[in-house]
């Protein structure tokens, strides 16, 4: 490998948060800048970070609900204003915050008439609800209402084919994506050899983590991804060095005289 020296800015790369606000409990916004970057580097960093922010950050959500003896998701339950499908869609929108791994159980157990919101969910330890006021259903009659829920921490968007359930258990499309949107833009400044780029990065999250936390986690995931290549190169280099240092042992052969 041939290494060439490239003249560039001696300034250290720096991240800086230039704007941060909370629009609602489920919408956080942050704007960051990274500079100085050489020409072309801003696009490289911006594309990689955007993909990591949208697809590589884990989130917690409700993935399954069990109602009891409900024949299909389009059924209606006496004393409840919403259909089963509408309740499933409302549960899908619940934003959770946690560090759990694997599947955990939760439940809702209330008696009507009353409105059911996210604060009525009985959660396992270490799981929090971001917005307690998120609606789930409206009980219009004095009935007992019970739902078993499953909670899982994952990444990305997962769908499961719904079919008529014998035990009233239905999957919920899992949206494990805490980052709602990411935009980046590039600003060029300087003249001649001193020309450099500034990367502007905008991040919107669902409130389960801040844009700054999302940026940190995305950066860490990218670093962990590329570390494997560095380790592979170090192992390959070590193997080549050891191979060059290896001296085969001197083999001696003893000649035997045969008596005839």
Automatic annotation (TrEMBL):
EC number(s) from the headed UniProt entry: 2.7.7.6
Alphabetized GO MF terms: DNA binding; DNA-directed RNA polymerase activity; protein dimerization activity
Keywords: DNA-directed RNA polymerase, Nucleotidyltransferase, Plastid, Transcription, Transferase
Biological process terms in GO annotation: DNA-templated transcription
Broad class of the protein's primary localization: plastid
Boundaries of every DNA-directed RNA polymerase RpoA/D/Rpb3-type domain copy: 29-232
Localization of this protein: Plastid
Keyword Aminoacyl-tRNA synthetase part of the UniProt annotation: no
One GO term describing the cellular component: plastid
Superkingdom of origin: Eukaryota
Pfam assignment, any one: RNA_pol_A_bac
CDD domains per UniProt: RNAP_alpha_NTD
InterPro entries: DNA-dir_RNA_pol_insert (IPR011262), DNA-dir_RNA_pol_RpoA/D/Rpb3 (IPR011263), DNA-dir_RpoA (IPR011773), RBP11-like (IPR036603), RNApol_insert_sf (IPR036643)
Reaction equations catalysed: RNA(n) + a ribonucleoside 5'-triphosphate = RNA(n+1) + diphosphate
Family to which this protein belongs: Belongs to the RNA polymerase alpha chain family.
Alphabetized NCBIfam families for the sequence: rpoA
Reported function: DNA-dependent RNA polymerase catalyzes the transcription of DNA into RNA using the four ribonucleoside triphosphates as substrates.
Protein name: DNA-directed RNA polymerase
UniProt source species: Buergersiochloa bambusoides
């Amino acid at each position: 490998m041939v290494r060439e020296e490239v003249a560039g800015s001696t300034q250290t790369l720096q991240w800086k948060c230039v704007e941060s606000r909370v629009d609602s409990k489920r919408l956080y916004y942050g704007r960051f800048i990274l500079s100085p970057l050489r020409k072309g580097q801003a696009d490289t960093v911006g594309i990689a970070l955007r993909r990591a922010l949208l697809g590589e950050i884990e989130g917690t959500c409700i993935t399954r609900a069990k109602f009891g003896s409900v024949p299909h998701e389009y059924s209606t339950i006496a004393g409840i204003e919403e259909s089963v499908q509408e309740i499933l869609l409302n549960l899908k929108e619940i934003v959770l915050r946690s560090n759990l791994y694997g599947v955990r159980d939760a439940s809702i157990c209330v008696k009507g008439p009353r409105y059911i919101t996210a604060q009525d969910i009985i959660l396992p330890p270490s799981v929090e609800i971001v917005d307690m006021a998120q609606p789930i259903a409206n009980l219009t009659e004095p009935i007992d209402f019970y739902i078993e829920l499953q909670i899982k921490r994952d990444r990305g968007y997962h769908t499961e084919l719904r079919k008529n359930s014998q035990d009233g258990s239905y999957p919920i499309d899992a949206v494990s994506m805490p980052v709602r949107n990411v935009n980046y833009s590039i600003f060029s400044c300087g003249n001649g050899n001193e020309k450099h780029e500034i990367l502007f990065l905008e991040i919107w999250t669902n409130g389960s983590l801040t844009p700054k936390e999302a940026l940190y986690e995305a950066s860490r995931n990218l670093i962990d991804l590329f570390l494997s290549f560095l380790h592979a190169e170090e192992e390959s280099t070590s193997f080549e060095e050891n191979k060059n240092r290896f001296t085969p042992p001197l083999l001696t052969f003893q000649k035997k005289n045969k008596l005839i």
